[in-house]
């Protein structure tokens, strides 16, 4: 008996642990590419270098230019000396930090955390964070004892916040380069928009040489990317909120693409959520703000025609999104094919093009 598509268990699959990519491929363009055609119901196997051949002159490639900040923090409670690990989420308009943290015992407002340089435990430099309050979701507001911009402080004291399944306490030198798209330019994400990790400047040039327009949106990937769905019914899931922006000029180019029968090709689920969130605002120009859009059946896509994405975790909102876009049965068949053919999964894994 088939599980209803409004239940999270419908989006479960068994993945051999050996298929979880814990390291990036030697080169960004070494990734494999599964091409899923919705009209034909077909599944083909290619490499990411073949990507431009599936694009047409007049299409518009939309990439998320967010930049991952070194958001993972390691320190100790000044009162007890106990170890503390945390994740910077964002800074508010008063330069206070919002962050998650874990330590033995219970933290209290008024406590102080001493942050160590993540990759230099012998350093005498410290960043002091004064804890102000904790909300119902476990997010702390803290005030750093520094007037430096948060990006400057994170680059000095933080490290790249790798997903839990990579099982690396500290990011390697390679992670600092490869867990970042080559076109990242707007700091603020705590996780990479991973579909974009496959692009090199040369691959982007090959796309534009075919007459494909290239445009950027911004969505700062937040902690929700690591948050599992804990309810059985999708309607009961509270989606995390993330800041995104669709520039006005980009919105005009996308509309022009549509008007001239070109396709909007979203690179990654973050670009999809940005474009679809802007459409829901019914604005003719650009838009920026927080989005908590949870794309699930029977959602009707208004902007995106083609999607490039990686392979997502079972029981995740991202798997729900791609199933909604491609059709549940075809997408689950694609995942079975990927496992059978030993594709590499998740952030450092292979890619899928849904046309």
Summed up:
With 355 residues, the chain is an alpha/beta fold. It has helices at residues 150-157, 173-178, 201-208, 248-259, 269-280, 317-326, 328-340, and strands spanning 32-37, 42-47, 60-64, 66-68, 72-77, 83-91, 97-103, 112-116, 127-134, 140-144, 186-189, 213-219, 242-246, 264-267, 287-291, 306-310, 351-354.
Description:
With 355 residues, the chain is an alpha/beta fold. The protein folds into 2 domains: 8-68 and 175-354, QueA-like (3-Layer(aba) Sandwich); 72-159, Thrombin, subunit H (Beta Barrel), CATH 2.40.10. The protein is 19% helix and 26% strand. The protein has 7 helices and 17 strands. The strands form 3 sheets. A 9-stranded mixed beta sheet has the order 2-1-17-16-14-3-12-13-15. Strands 5-6-7-10-9-8 form a 6-stranded antiparallel β-barrel. It has a two-stranded parallel sheet with strand order 4-11. A hairpin with a 5-residue loop joins strand 5 (72-77) and strand 6. The radius of gyration is 21 Å and the shape is globular. The two termini are 29 Å apart. 39% of the residues are buried. The mean pLDDT is 94.
Quick one: biggest sheet?
Answer: 9 strands, mixed
Give the name of the CATH superfamily of the largest domain.
Answer: QueA-like
User: What's the CATH architecture of the largest domain?
Assistant: 3-Layer(aba) Sandwich
Shape label: globular
What is the CATH class of the largest domain?
Answer: Alpha Beta
Question: Structural class given helices, strands, pairing?
Answer: alpha/beta
What does the oligomeric state look like here? Answer: single chain
Low-confidence stretches: none
Distance between the amino and carboxyl termini: 29 Å
Secondary-structure element string: EEEEEEEEEEHHEHEEHEHEEHHE
Task: Quickly count the helices.
Answer: 7
Mean pLDDT across residues? 94
User: Into how many domains do the coordinates divide?
Assistant: 2
- Per DSSP E runs of 2 or more residues, the count of β-strands stands at 17
Largest sheet strand order: 2-1-17-16-14-3-12-13-15
Strand portion, in percent?
A: 25-35%
Q: Over all CA atoms, what is the radius of gyration? A: 21 Å
């Amino acid at each position: 008996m088939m599980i209803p598509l409004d239940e999270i268990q419908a989006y479960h699959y068994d993945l051999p642990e050996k298929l979880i990519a814990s390291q990036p491929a030697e080169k960004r363009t070494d990734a494999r590419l599964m091409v899923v055609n919705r009209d034909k119901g077909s599944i083909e196997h290619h490499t990411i270098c073949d990507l431009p051949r599936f694009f047409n002159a007049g299409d518009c490639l939309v990439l998320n230019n967010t930049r991952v900040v070194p958001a993972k923090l390691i320190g100790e409670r000044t009162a007890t000396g106990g170890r503390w690990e945390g994740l910077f989420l964002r800074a508010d308009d008063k330069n206070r930090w919002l962050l998650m943290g874990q330590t033995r015992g219970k933290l209290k407002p008024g406590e102080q955390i001493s942050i160590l340089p993540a990759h230099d435990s012998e350093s005498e430099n410290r960043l002091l964070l004064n804890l102000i309050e904790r909300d119902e979701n476990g997010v702390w507001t803290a005030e750093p004892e520094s007037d430096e911009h948060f990006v400057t402080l994170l680059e000095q004291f933080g490290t790249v916040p790798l997903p839990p399944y990579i099982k690396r306490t500290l990011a390697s030198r390679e992670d600092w380069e490869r867990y970042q798209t080559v076109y990242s330019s707007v700091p603020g994400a705590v996780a990479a928009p991973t579909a974009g990790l496959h692009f090199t400047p040369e691959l982007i040039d090959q796309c534009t040489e075919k007459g494909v327009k290239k445009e950027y949106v911004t969505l700062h990937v937040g902690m929700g990317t690591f948050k599992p769905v804990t309810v059985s019914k999708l309607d009961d899931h509270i989606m995390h909120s993330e800041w995104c922006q669709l520039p006005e000029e980009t919105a005009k180019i996308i509309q022009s693409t549509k008007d001239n029968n070109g396709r909007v090709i979203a690179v990654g689920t973050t670009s999809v959520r940005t474009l679809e969130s802007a459409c829901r605002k019914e604005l003719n120009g650009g838009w920026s703000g927080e989005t908590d859009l949870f794309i699930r059946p029977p959602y009707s896509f208004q902007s995106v025609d083609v999607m490039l994405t990686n392979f997502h975790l079972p029981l995740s909102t991202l798997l729900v999104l791609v199933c909604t876009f491609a059709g549940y049965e075809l997408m689950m068949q694609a995942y079975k094919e990927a496992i059978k053919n030993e594709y590499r999964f998740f952030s450092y894994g292979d890619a899928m093009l849904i046309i």
